Amino acid sequence: MTLTQTTATARGATARRLLTLPFLAAMLAACAVPPPPAPPAPAAPPPDEIEVTPLEKTRALLITAEATPSAAASRQAIDAVLALDAPDGGLLLRAERLWTRLPEEGRRDLADRYRGARLAWLQNDSEAALDRLPQVDDDRDPALYFGALVLRAELLTETSAWHEALRSRIALDPGLLEDPARQHENQQFIWELLATVDAIQRQQLFAPDASDAERGWAELFVALRAAGADPQAFDRAVEEWTAGHPDHNARIYLPDLRDATLRSDAPPRRVAVLLPLSGSLADLGNAVLDGISARHARDHGPGAPLRVLDTEGEPDLAEAHYRNAIAEGADRIIGPLTRDEVDRVAAIGSGPPTLLLNQPTQPLPESFSVLSLAPEADARAAAAKASTAGWRNALVLVPEGTFGERVADAFREAFESGDSRVAAEYRFQARSPDLNAQIGAVLAVDESEARIGRLGRQLGLRLQGDPQIRADVDGIFIAGPARDLRMVVPHLHYHRAHRLPMLATAHAYEGRPQPALDEDLSGLRFPDAPWLFPERNPEPELRQQLEAKIDDVVVEVTVDLELEADVETETAAARLPRFAALGVDAAGLVTELERYRRAPQLQARGAAGNWAWQPLIRSWVREPGWFEFRNGRPVAVRAAPEPGNDG
């Protein structure tokens, strides 16, 4: 006999015994002598009602819904799961299956889309939740409409869809008037989102289709950015804004903004600097250190403590130095510099406010922020410039390779965040023997010549036409080092592309005027650090100080080295002036990190450009200076004001 058979037999015997017991009891009772009558028993209290917990009720509703095709039963069970404080994965999975069984036409209703989005969100799938709640239409049920708005705003923020999240939170704000705590939290999110979206997306809040609420928030942000941390300018900006928006909800947030903007913080007591000062990256590290040291001594006095630690470009050493700096009492840290070092330090997860000098490959903990000179930032600045200038279609020309892909991707992403598009992209090899033909093809000059030829054959005439470049682009974004652009841009001029505006990255300029070499680049505009241009440098004395050190060294050694002395005694700050400017700005920003975090509308005017804090990605975005080659020399170009600011 098998185990199964044995178990079944035992169960049958047990059942039979249980069934015969009542029968035997009845027989014995019939044969017994009747007992004397007992006194009447007191009335028993009514039995207590059996309490059913929410979890038990939910499980029962799930069982019922799973056993029937009723959509109403499925919705009731799903709602019960969603009403639990912390439903486990099994319950969520069962509710998810029920949601997928709902009729397709029913899932178009806001209520069902909201149910599905909440289920996906609770299962940590924000993207799926957003797919189920692509928009929130007005609904007859105010509670449902409001709840869906709240969830969509949360999902958009979680998935880094900053611009849509901003518009959703602005739409949500009027519904929070009776809940001051939640409204304050929502308005804080609105302000942080205004600081996080790029200039192109913020510009859209001034478009004709923008709501009055959106325009009001955007105008306030731009006005307070222009006012800066000056109390009188702040109050004037608020007064003027309030006159134009007397009933706007942002008025509630103004006292907090004023305190956040005008309250100052104690300066740091001890700053540590982690840089590669030896090894293959020594020049970069020392250029940054020159800038940090000069600014720190100027702002805090020559004897102000500055702990400098050489990472040698090694992640292990960077991590060890970071931990040591904390143990020694550093309350601000600048660095490290390389991406691998930055990733290692950020993985520690906590520490004093830290300015990393490169973009990490992972999300950053609260105490970290990024200040860097990346080619992608130049490309995004060019995209914002193009959008402000009215470009709607752009042609992108970049060199083959990793650098070209990075800047092309960054330009396209920023440029297409608005209503514009990249019409065509081309990867060039500057030394290709058929470069001229390739440039002509990408400009569609050959197509124009072919049209002229066809027309001549049709007419039986020999036409001398003027081939035209493509008409579907408003401008050209071109990137690459100066030595490559000197080869490519003349071909653009040859094919009459000089009629189109051209924007580049800072790599177009080698850091010193060379009119004979750069004559063919005339008309090309590029973003760069004001530090390199005396008429725009906000820190001329610091640069003179660094250059004076160079002059002193040259005087001492020129007798022995003669013409080679200038090269061999030139400091890292002189060879890499943009990184010296980065160091100057890092030393200035690290002093007031908390103020910028509280009031992200503030901009810091710096040697590398104007820096603004993006709170939701913990990164500093740079607004560079703009320059144009004229007769081979770079000339400063006045920046256009942001929409909403007449200054």
Low-pLDDT residue intervals, each spanning 5 or more residues: 1-36, 446-461, 551-568
Q: What is the terminal-to-terminal distance?
A: 96 Å
Fraction of residues in H or I helices: 40-55%
Q: Count of DSSP helices? A: 27
Number of strands: 15
Q: Which strand-content bin applies to the residues?
A: 5-15%
Q: What integer value in Å does the Rg equal?
A: 35 Å
Average pLDDT, rounded to a whole number, is: 85
Q: Label the structural class.
A: alpha/beta
Q: What sort of overall outline do the alpha carbons produce when their principal axes are compared? A: globular
Strand order of the largest sheet: 7-6-8-9-10-14-15
Word description of this protein:
The chain has 647 residues and is α/β, with parallel strands linked by helices. Helices cover 52% and strands 11% of the residues. It is globular. The relative contact order is 0.08. Mean pLDDT is 85; it is low at 1-36, 446-461 and 551-568.
In brief:
With 647 residues, the protein is α/β, with parallel strands linked by helices.
Keywords:
27 helices; alpha/beta; 5-stranded parallel beta sheet; 7-stranded mixed beta sheet; 15 strands; disordered N terminus; 647 residues; 52% helix
List the helices and strands and how they pair.
Blueprint: H1 3-31, H2 54-66, H3 71-83, H4 89-101, H5 110-122, H6 126-132, H7 142-158, H8 162-172, H9 180-196, H10 199-203, H11 212-227, H12 231-244, H13 254-262, E1 271-275, H14 282-300, E2 306-310, H15 315-327, E3 332-334, H16 339-346, E4 354-356, E5 368-370, H17 375-388, E6 393-399, H18 402-415, E7 421-428, H19 435-442, H20 445-459, E8 475-478, H21 482-494, E9 502-503, H22 515-518, E10 524-528, H23 540-561, H24 565-568, H25 572-575, H26 577-589, H27 593-598, E11 603-605, E12 610-614, E13 619-623, E14 625-630, E15 633-637
Parallel strand pairs: 1-2, 1-3, 3-4, 4-5, 6-7, 6-8, 8-9, 9-10
Antiparallel strand pairs: 10-14, 11-12, 12-13, 14-15
Helix pairs in contact: 2-3, 2-4, 3-4, 3-5, 4-5, 5-6, 5-7, 6-7, 7-8, 8-9, 11-12, 14-26, 15-16, 17-18
